[in-house]
Specification:
- The chain has 2 domains: 3-282, Type I PLP-dependent aspartate aminotransferase-like (Major domain) (Aspartate Aminotransferase, domain 2, 3-Layer(aba) Sandwich), CATH 3.40.640; 288-422, Aspartate Aminotransferase, domain 1 (Alpha-Beta Complex), CATH 3.90.1150.10.
- It is built from 17 helices and 12 strands.
- 40% of the residues lie in helices and 13% in strands.
- It is an alpha/beta fold.
- Bound molecules: pyridoxal-5'-phosphate.
- Pyridoxal-5'-phosphate is lined by residues 81-83, 107, 109-110, 150, 154, 179, 181-182, 201, 203-204, 213, 215, 367.
Length: 423
């Protein structure tokens, strides 16, 4: 099936008992065992089935299967937020003494996790000087457990050479983990280009309506964990946190996602609420359609701003003169989502006046809503960084980031024009 069909049908046939066609909300914590042996088999992970909603839930399962199918992976894990997905995916592979090598242009919350929280638990994150494969390759050593990037950096809008990064990671027997939130699997499929793990904040475009937090991890099933038993000891030696299971023996290619579910999620509990899984599935049904409109509107907004006499610069990889335009063509058919940034002539002060004058664009920190949104990263998402760190993350003081929605383009351009004039 094609993406638009997968998003509507994959992972669910009408409910077997009620024949309900919409995915039911299993607002339920625990699931009954047939008998003691059945309970034991479930706990041993010998038979499929549900135990407790902290580790699995039938509504969440449909979201997991659909996202995995769209990304071309073998399995998914849904959790309470994109941030939890990123943390759990990293925790599945690392322990104190290990390191992660990352591109520098990251979502603000991910940067804080990498720069401060993970190091406080002994996991070092090495930020490359830029997002090139060479810069990443230089930092990989024997203690590196994964290479990390965002397919489209938020908010910098840089397009990462996924294939190049996968090559340098695989040359050192290290997996590539890609945050594909901004691109969505409709525009970019990192696994096709060599990514091993894909993480998502489904809070954004997948949900698409700004009403529910959620995160998903997708496992490609391609990384040969068992060939490197010492490097990936957590997947190849008996797991003390789950009665001695050896994940590569029990789950084969799905070892990674099985450990993510049964160790980090099971023990720390950022489970996705079934109601949110339902709302996120509602969003997913129209994702392909919305991304078409989002990207159509984004290129029109970018062209409008570029030609506007009051605008100093526009950064959107969909524009032919953007340095990453070729990468955008290779990885996302020239449609690099609908997040763009620009700076006004008149610097910071004009930027603030513009921001305050917006009527349709909402002033907030979110992206991927059907509604158009605007944000000033330097004072919000990236304010915990100093100016040097901001510059490395691709954030300028006067920069305004737009998340272009699916409204009528005429109304969006009129709103931008009147705000620019007031600024
Ligand atoms: C929002 C976002 C996150 C964090 O997701 P939450 O669902 O808000 O926890 C991670 N990565 C990117 C690229 C994001 O935009």
């Amino acid at each position: 099936m094609k993406d638009a069909t997968i998003a509507l049908h994959h992972g669910f046939k009408s409910d077997p008992t009620t024949r309900a066609v919409a995915v039911p909300i299993y607002q339920n914590v625990a699931f009954e065992f047939d008998n003691a042996q059945h309970g034991a088999d479930l706990f041993n992970l010998d038979v499929p089935g549900n135990i407790y909603t902290r580790i699995m839930n039938p509504t969440n399962d449909v979201l997991e299967q659909r996202m995995a199918a769209l990304e071309g992976g073998i399995a998914g894990l849904a959790v309470a937020a994109g941030s939890a997905a990123i943390h759990y995916a990293i925790q599945t592979l690392t322990q104190a003494g290990d390191n992660v090598v990352s591109t520098p242009q990251l979502y603000g919350g991910t940067y804080t996790l990498f720069a401060h929280l993970l190091p406080s638990f002994g996991v070092e994150v090495r930020f490359a000087r830029d997002d090139s494969p060479e810069a990443i390759a230089e930092l990989i050593d024997d203690k590196t457990k994964l290479v990390y990037c965002e397919s489209i950096g938020n908010p910098a809008g840089n397009i990462v050479d996924i294939e190049g990064l996968a090559q340098v990671a695989h040359a050192r027997n290290v997996p590539l983990m890609v945050d594909n939130t901004v691109a969505t699997p409709i525009l970019c499929k990192p696994i096709q280009f060599g990514a091993d793990i894909v993480v998502h904040s489904v809070t954004k475009y997948v949900g698409g309506h700004g009403n529910s937090l959620g995160g998903v991890i997708v496992d490609s099933g391609n990384f040969p964990w068992a060939e490197h038993p010492q490097k990936f000891a957590s997947l190849n030696t008996p797991e003390p946190a789950y009665h001695g299971v050896v994940y590569t023996e029990k789950f084969g290619p799905a070892a990674f996602i099985a450990r993510a579910r049964t160790v980090p999620l099971r023990n720390t509990g950022a489970a996705l609420a079934p109601m949110n899984a339902f709302l996120l599935l509602q969003g997913l049904e129209t994702l392909a359609l919305r991304m078409e409109r989002h990207t159509d509107n984004a290129i029109k907004v970018a062209q409008f701003l570029k030609e506007h006499p009051l605008v100093a610069w526009v950064s959107y990889a969909g524009l032919p003169d953007h340095p990453h335009h070729e990468l955008a063509r290779k990885y996302m058919q020239g449609k690099p989502s609908a997040i763009l940034s620009f700076g006004l002539k008149g610097g910071y002060a004009a930027g603030v006046r513009f921001y305050d004058a917006l009527q349709i664009f909402k002033r907030l920190v979110n992206i991927g809503d059907a509604k158009s949104l605007a944000c000033h990263p330097a004072s919000t998402t990236h304010r915990q960084m100093n100016e040097e760190e901001q510059a490395k993350a691709g954030v300028k003081p006067e920069m305004i980031r737009l998340s272009v929605g699916i409204e009528a383009i005429e109304d969006l351009l009129e709103d931008l024009d009147q705000a620019l004039r007031q600024a």
